[in-house]
Design a protein that fits this description.
The protein has 7 helices and 13 strands.
Length: 316
Amino acid sequence: MRRRTPPPPAPLPQRDGVDPVRVRLPMDGAWATVREHLVERLTGAGPGMIDSMLAAGQMVGADGRAVAPDAPYRPGMFVWFHRELPAEVPVPFPVDVVYRDEHIVVADKPHFLATTPRGTHVAETALARLRRELGIPTLTAAHRLDRLTAGLVLFTVRPGERGAYQTLFRDRRVHKEYEAVAPYDPALVLPRTVRSRILKERGVPAAREVPGEPNAETRVERAGQRAGLGRYRLVPATGQTHQLRVHLTALGIPILGDPLYPEVTDPVPAGDFRRPLQLLARKLEFTDPVTGTDHSFASTRRLRAWTSFDDWAAGA
């Protein structure tokens, strides 16, 4: 089995902690020029944008030289450029660094901040912020949290070591604990382990449970209850998209502040940070695959619906 040849290093520096976009030209195709392919491929760039960028020398090849507007098409060629960053509403909460050494950074991410650039969230992400604030352009995420979920995220410092840390998550050698606030149901028998098959379709906001072999498993325990609310400890054995939110909804106790479960509601307006999803990645424990150190980290954040429900409900 042939190994995939890694792409050459980016000839452009990061901008605002965001990497340049890399495009590889297909090995087959009938395009006469690089421009023809990019115009056809990057339809979201807007009319005339590709021509404008080429004319300004903003698209470069692996050697760092600008791609000429009439450059002939070369199969397998790499092209880099910086996209125009979308207008983003700043998330007014800090990303707290819990731990840092020469190999990893563990951060305590706030609600509403995406982990890595995606879609309309690019510079206002935990990764881009940490690159800027810590001065580590090589920083990458070893895993992700949903934008609406707060808590601990592991980042790697050295690109050559990222795979070792990602393998920890793939092989389920990371112990993760979450905390959630949801309705209290006295008839619900806990603790229990929930297993189901979860399907998340591209372009569909919410995931759903479907028949078939389970691909998601969560241990659910009650950590407290008062005034109709429950505080729950969640220990996932797998990492399907929205797994915890889907499983608690299936138990009849959807997490407070969830805009997708049990029903998809209107999107929260940009800049509305009043009632965050009451889900927190509380603990992260693993043996470091590079140093052999046993790590145990805990978030210092608190779920406001539990500490002060009236304030959370009022959006104060």
